Amino acid sequence: MDKFWETKTLNEMTSAEWESLCDGCGKCCLHKLEDEDTGDIYYTRVACQLLDIETCRCSDYADRLKKEPTCVKLTPNDVDNLQWLPSSCSYRRLQDGRGLPAWHHLVCGDRNRVHEDGHSIMGLCVSERHVHPDGLEEHIVHWVN
Questions:
Q1: Which of 67, 111, 129, 139 could form a disulfide with 105 if both were Cys (CB 3.0 to 4.6 A apart)?
Q2: Rounded to whole angstroms, how far apart are CA atoms 6 and 107?
Q3: Helix (H) or strand (E) holding 97
Q4: What is the mean pLDDT of the chain?
Q5: pTM greater than 0.85 (yes/no)
């Protein structure tokens, strides 16, 4: 198996390689709140309406940017600028020189391991369809990173 993530920078990766880095944790699909005074980011347990909370997969990945205006198309140039990316995020880990964790599917060969080992939001979140936008603060969590 070609361990491209060990030899290439994020900017050198093909789009297929880039896409394969996503570990499928779903954390980036959670609503986040920013403290206007401190700039601190707080994750909620409220997931984007497009996230299938049973599988931690986007239900319409190809058209997500059209359907969900707050969705961010992550690029190599964004990783350093998006402070809300959790420290466990594969893109963040590689950018920081920490490598991929043992539970990552490219390392272990099992896409379910991220869930089995408790590194995803599977079973821990609720869809935004069931939460009023004014009630997000009630759903702040501290288990994301």
A1: 111
A2: 11
A3: none
A4: 93
A5: yes
Q: How many C-beta atoms surround the C-beta of residue 120 within 10 A?
A: 22
Is beta strand 126-127 parallel, antiparallel or unpaired with respect to 41-47? parallel
- Is the separation of the CB atoms in 18 and 76 below 8 Å? yes
Q: What is the pLDDT of residue 1?
A: 61
Which token pair is 115?
């869930």
Q: Concatenated DSSP letters for 27-87?
A: GGGEEEEE-TTT--EEEEEEEPTTEETTTTEETTGGGHHHH-TT-----TTTTTT-TTS-T
Neighbours of 36 (CB within 10 A): 7
pLDDT digits (tens, 9 = 90+) for 93-103: 999 999 999 99
CB neighbour class for 12 (10 Å; exposed up to 12, middle 13-18, buried from 19): exposed
Measured between alpha carbons, how far is 16 from 19 in angstroms, rounded to an integer? 5
Query: For the chain, which residues make up each domain, given as ranges?
Result: 4-139
